[in-house]
Write a structure and sequence with these properties.
This protein has no helices and eleven strands. It has 119 residues and is mainly β. The relative contact order is 0.32.
Amino acid sequence: QVQLVESGGGLVQPGGSLRLSCAGSGSIFRPNVMGWYRQAPGKQRELVATITPHGATTYADSVKGRFTISGDSALYAIDLQMNSLKPEDTAVYYCHLRFLGTPIESGYWGQGTQVTVSS
């Protein structure tokens, strides 16, 4: 019913930049929170950044100052600008959407896009 599609992943050298995009479609009629999460091999999925319908943003400490989330969650379209990338940023990055005031478990996930930071 709700589909999220990520794009923009790829291979980049340390210190480089990538911009990820997420577009949602389907029946979404409530205010929502959208965000980016990532999962590295052998690790649990973790928060990267979120954005509310009001434009308020949150970031994981590990990406503050390097990553910027933007877009309009009301239009189901967000981006993640990633600068000064490090090898430890290597992961599958997932777009997520949930209704405002509901837990992450009730939301929707995209299929993920691979980001690899390596020389």
